[in-house]
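Hey, can you fold this one?
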Amino acid sequence: MANSLFSTDPIAADTRIACRIEYDGSGYNGWQLQPHEGVVTVQEKLELALSKIAAEPVRVHCAGRTDTGVHAFSQIIHFDAPVPRSCKAWVVGGNANLPRDIRIHWAVPVTENFHARFSAESRCYRYVIANTAIRSALLLKQVTWHRRELDQLAMHAAAQTLLGERDFSAFRAASCQSTSPMRNVQFIEVQRRGDLLIIEVMANAFLHHMVRNIAGALMAVGDGRRSLEWIVQLMAGRDRSLGVETASASGLYLVDVQYPRHYTLPQTPYGPMLIGTKL
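Sure. Predicted structure:
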């Protein structure tokens, strides 16, 4: 697999290329390119790097437009190569022109009907909480800090009430531009690994701030401020104003995007790996 991901064989111009991108979002104003000067985004940095390899402008499309401060372990993007270049050139050359907090892990040719966003069947986010008396110095922007003790079992039980295709109006931001509040949450789990609590959510798609609002609600259940019945009523009431505060962007990671098997994209390893995690 490694050899195919770093092939030096040139790929024809106009071939569609898919890549896995990893980034620390703490220094960026989200993924999406902004028209305002001085607003630095991940998309801007990535397009500039790839355009240097192509010596022509390159426009990329992503699986999920992450917000300011949100990280990605496996953001999937695609672009149409304007010139012949090898997979190795896109990966190694791209990384040479990127800041160190953005990395391209692989590049592979895909069929022209592949679309990083619209071909995706599901997306998976992880929300990492450091449940410690003192805030971590080493993981300052990589995790959310919660001082009060959290009951992982209560949080997991509450999370199971959110499964299925439901109206998630109670967990969407006021600025959300989606035409429908309906989303299908396929999997949600809360695990404790030492001092870290990890909320993992998989759905067909997500509303704006949906994961962060779910995390905030689950933490309110976990530290005893709210009950399991409250989160059931909140979901049924479809009123965001009755919820708790939106959880911090720190600690939120886009970790996996699933596509139909016929696209044969490389598998994503489990991640991110943080100090203190015990697998």
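The chain has a mean pLDDT of 93. Let me know if you want another pass with a different chain boundary.
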